[in-house]
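Last lecture ended with a question: if I hand you only a sequence, what can you say about the shape of the protein? Today we answer it with a concrete record. The protein is Aspartyl/glutamyl-tRNA(Asn/Gln) amidotransferase subunit B. Below, first the input exactly as provided, then the predicted structure, then a couple of comments.
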Amino acid sequence: MSKQYETVIGLEVHVELATKTKIFCGCSTAFGGAPNTHTCPVCTGMPGSLPVLNKKVVEYAMAVGLATNCKITQVCKFDRKNYFYPDNPQNYQISQLYLPIARDGYVEIEVGEQKKKVRIYEMHMEEDAGKLIHDEWEDCSLVDYNRSGVPLIEIVSEPDMRSADEVIAYLEKLRMICQYLGASDCKLQEGSMRADVNLSVREVGASEFGTRTEMKNLNSFKAITHAIEGERQRQIELIEEGKKVIQETRRWDDNKEYSYAMRSKEDAQDYRYFPEPDLVPIVISDEWIQKIKDQQPELRNEKLARYEKDYDIPRYDAELITGTKKMADLFEATCAICNKPKKVSNWLMVETMRLLNENGQEPADIKFSPENLAKLIELADAGTINSSVAKEVFEKVFAEDVDPEKYVEDHGLKTVNDEGALRTLAEEVIAKNPKAVEDFKGGKEKALGALVGQIMKAMKGKANPGMVNELLREMLK
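The predicted structure:
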């Protein structure tokens, strides 16, 4: 009988904080920007330049710490992590090893019906490194220091996860918390949330952990899932062949769906950590912690309960809408204008989600305003436009945030409720379609649909379908 194996996974998640300026200088943290334009002597590591801590970084880190049930370290400090790499301009990184800002927390995840706590070992603040761009044509590497000094928090979990599904649920929970707090936009594709996966396998029932490897370069949930499955398989094959798993850092190649060794794993002593001499310790008072607690916004679970009570929408709707802060904000703002929660939720869940999927976009990319969504709902509700025109107009609202009232007026899209005009058209359609008329009189309901369709087509979709239906039934009696 073949052996059964269990995967043991812990994560190191880097989250870029949403401050306007870097952690130790006043340079912009904006994504994009021409290479090396968001830089100064501090973030390019010039001799004699001195770091000054950005207070907002500490406040965001505390907010995330509190939201993930961590204890805040009230006297914490920075350390120097020494290593040489071209994207690291000082040849050291300012991080926190001995007294990180937060520790001993947890988040609760749900996979299927199962709830589970994933413990957080610690969370620390640090500066990001620059970015190397490898030029294949010129056979050289160029470095862009725009990202150097962008503030990060690194959230280190305990090895509590056992599958790719649990890992994704944990990452989604962290992402949601950071987005709700406004601490980070957590866009994996822009690198503002990155995860390194520490993974080992052991026989089911074993108490000792196996030898772990760390996988880097994972910038999408799909890549993380594939990397976990691939690395699990690789380690099981090595064990089955009687070989040893080597503790090392591996790089995942998403195109080849394979990981390869980068370097054997260092320990903390390899980095010669020592207290950062240019920064004073941070003393966090009880009052400061209380102030951050008081400022914490309503998080998802509280929103869920409130939506079901105040807006009387089904649990399923509420879960989908509160899944991202952008969607929740849009829902609440639109409801405040038109006070039609179920209609708002339908437009967000059906048409908005459809267009996001078709365009390969995330809810964070939504551009249209709650005012214009509310106007569209009012137009459709009043029967000023019918449902198919409403969908057509919404596509314009979604793409360009047009004013639906003006758009309907300018393009002559109002529903035709003129009974006289519709009756004349119905007479023509009845005369031209004796077969459908006969079928309907013989009890075939579907035949009426064909006649309604002809009238709608002649009216370019602008007739009131309910009125057309009634008219036809009355005339065919």
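Comments.
1. The mean pLDDT is 88.
2. Residues 298-410 form one domain.
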